[in-house]
Amino acid sequence: MPSCTIETPLGHAKITGDANGISSVSISDTFQELSEIISEELLDCVTQLKAYFRGERQYFDLKLNPSGTVFQKNVWQHLQQISFGKTCSYLDLSKQLGDPKAIRAVANANGKNPLWIIVPCHRVVGSDGSLTGYAGGLHRKQWLINHESSNKQQTLF
């Protein structure tokens, strides 16, 4: 499956996907050689991620093909409905899924999200607004939340 590695303000991001869609976007603290050639299947994802980091994009319009259970995919679809610059608690998310007692299962599915930033699991916080678990590290979660709140389009009225 084609993959590429690009530089972001938060480290090197590895993107994997094919004609069926993007299957993973992950971040790494370790050095990875940057891609000189990016396959056609991944080019749109690279372009959209770079625009996001420049503050020029607030949502992603990509064909996605992550691997996961039916429940995980359902959670990931709900994550995509959390607006740019907003946050949602695990409890709120479990209520949206129809089971307010499923907080732990929702948190687990959130943690298994293979599409870093594209499926915005960083927008999920504790019920008290605190930053809780993030596979990319809490420092990255804080950076992403700050980035989005500072780049939210201001309305005139």
TrEMBL record:
GO BP of this protein: DNA alkylation repair; methylation
What's a Gene Ontology MF term here? methylated-DNA-[protein]-cysteine S-methyltransferase activity
Q: Which residues form the active site?
A: 121
Q: What is its main location?
A: cytoplasm
**Does this UniProt record's set of keywords contain Glycoprotein?**
no
Q: Which SUPFAM superfamilies match?
A: Methylated DNA-protein cysteine methyltransferase domain, Methylated DNA-protein cysteine methyltransferase, C-terminal domain
Pfam family example for this protein?
DNA_binding_1
Annotated compartments: Cytoplasm
Q: What does this protein do?
A: Involved in the cellular defense against the biological effects of O6-methylguanine (O6-MeG) and O4-methylthymine (O4-MeT) in DNA. Repairs the methylated nucleobase in DNA by stoichiometrically transferring the methyl group to a cysteine residue in the enzyme. This is a suicide reaction: the enzyme is irreversibly inactivated.
User: Which PANTHER family does UniProt cross-reference here?
Assistant: METHYLATED-DNA--PROTEIN-CYSTEINE METHYLTRANSFERASE (PTHR10815)
Tell me more from the record: This enzyme catalyzes only one turnover and therefore is not strictly catalytic. According to one definition, an enzyme is a biocatalyst that acts repeatedly and over many reaction cycles.
Q: What name does the UniProt record give this protein?
A: Methylated-DNA--protein-cysteine methyltransferase
